[in-house]
Amino acid sequence: MQSRRDVQRQKSRVSGKKLVVRTLMFLLVAMLVLWGTFALATQPMRSAQHQAIHLAKKYAGLKTANGFYTYNRDHTYYTVSGKDRQGKAILVIVPQKGGNLRVVKQASGLTKQEAVAKVRSENNIKKVLRVAPGIFNDRVVWEVSYRNAKGSLCYDLLNFKSGKYVQRINNL
């Protein structure tokens, strides 16, 4: 016959196993919910990226894509960076609402790194948040958003070809 202590140990082991199983099930369900939420939240951007790359390949001579940017000012533009059929680096700027694609040879203007370096050299930047090419006043620009040393949000627009400042918005 089992003693009372042995019976309690068995019950304790069973309840411990149930707790482990319940905890693992909870974690599994939580991970699935988080993954599903992330997938749903990023689906529109993935769709826009896929469509922009498709249009750039079909109409602008893009052979390989190696970057994707979103620019939001007066209008939204998606930009695909990559190489054309001749192996030259290009940017293909696709308006969100339709219209003509704009193809820019990367060699004819600033690179992303050069745009960031210019803004860094003239501002006290704590952290660069985002860099994206787009269209502002019918000109190709690089938008660099950052936090300055005071922690304020700042946006600088640089002309793609000349590197001159087109617009500066500081301390938001």
Structure write-up:
With 172 residues, the chain is an alpha+beta fold. Helix content is 39%, strand content 38%. It has two helices and eight strands, in the order αββββαββββ. The strands form two sheets. Strands 1-2-3-4 form a four-stranded antiparallel sheet, covered by helices on one side. The chain has a four-stranded antiparallel sheet with strand order 5-6-7-8, covered by helices on one side. Strand 2 and strand 3 (89-95) form a beta hairpin. The relative contact order is 0.09.
Strand order of the largest sheet: 1-2-3-4
- Helix and strand element order: HEEEEHEEEE
Assess the beta-strand content as a share of residues: 35-45%
Number of helices: 2
**Biggest beta sheet attributes:** 4 strands, antiparallel
Q: Ends: how far apart?
A: 77 Å
What's the mean pLDDT score? Answer: 88
What is the molecular shape? elongated
User: What is the radius of gyration?
Assistant: 26 Å
What is the number of E strands? 8
Q: Class by helix and strand content?
A: alpha+beta
Low-confidence stretches: none
Provide the helix percentage.
25-40%
Question: What would a concise description of this structure say?
Answer:
This protein has helices spanning 4-59, 112-122; strands at residues 62-72, 76-84, 89-95, 102-105, 125-136, 139-148, 153-159, 165-169. The chain is of the alpha+beta class and 172 residues long. The strands form two sheets. The protein has a four-stranded antiparallel β-sheet, with helices on one face. A four-stranded antiparallel β-sheet has the order 5-6-7-8, covered by helices on one side.
